[in-house]
Amino acid sequence: MAGLGADIAEVYAELGVAVNIVSRDPVIVEEERLLYDINAQATKPFIREYHLDGSLAYDTQITTDDVIYIPVTDKYYMVMNKTPELFEGEIVEWNIVLYLCNLPATSHILRPVEVRNPTTYKITHGWQVIHDDPVYGLASDRFFGADVDQETPKVGQFQKWKIDLYLPKLYDIQPLDRVFMTETEYYKVEAIESHHYPGVNMVQLVEDTRPHTPVVNGDVYDD
After folding, report:
1. What is the pLDDT along the chain (223 residues), one digit of tens a residue?
2. Do 55 and 122 belong to one domain?
3. Can you give the residue range of the structural domain that contains 23?
C-alpha cells in the first residue's frame, strides 16, 4: 500500500546512506537513501569483494541501468537488478544487487576506425574515443584459460589471458572495441553477453596486440 511504502520510506530517510546517481547528466546528488548488507561469504571471494545486497524506498529514482556513488565509503557500484517487495499487491520497497566498480580512473573505451587524410586522401587505421574516463565497470579477477587441450599442444596453438568485465549497457560497447585501463594495460573485446542482467553487459576481454600510440586531435588514436 502507498501508505505503508511511505512509512517505510521514512526509515530510509532516517537510517539509509546517501547515494548519488552518477550515470546521468546532470548527476543526481544526495536525493536517494540506500540500506545495504555486506555479504560475508568467505568461501566465495567474488561475492565477498564485489557484491552488495541492498534495498531502496518504494518511490526510488534508481533503475537497473544506473551507476551510483556512496560518498561515505567513496565507492561506485552498478545496479545489477531491482526486485519489488510487495504487500497486498503494492510495491512497498525494492531489493537490489550492486556490483562494485573497480576500473581505474583512467579507463576509457576506444573503437577502431578508418581515418582519411584530407590532403592526400590516404586511409589509415586509427582509434576513436567512444567513452572517455572515467568508465565505470567491474573487471573480475584474471584467470588463465586455454583455447585448446593443454595436455596435447600442437603447432600454432596458443593460450591467452581472459578477463570478465561487467559494464553498463549505456556505454554501448561492441566487439573489437578496446578497453583502455592504463598506458600499459588495454584489452580487446572478444565477446558480449547482454541477456544476464537488465542494465549490464558481460564482456569478455582478451589480450590486445593491435598498435597503440598517443592521442591525436583529442579524439582519434592514429596508428
Report:
1. 458 989 899 999 999 999 999 998 888 888 899 999 876 665 666 777 788 999 999 999 999 989 999 999 999 999 999 999 999 889 999 999 999 999 999 999 999 888 777 788 887 778 888 888 789 999 986 544 433 334 444 444 444 568 899 999 999 999 999 999 888 889 999 999 999 999 999 999 998 988 876 544 444 544 4
2. no
3. 2-100
Whole-model pTM?
0.81
**CATH code of the domain in which 92 resides:** 2.40.10
Examine the domain organization and report whether 95 and 132 are in the same domain: no
Please state, in angstroms and rounded to a whole number, the distance separating the CA atoms of residues 91 and 93: 6
Whether residue 145 is found in the same domain as residue 218: yes
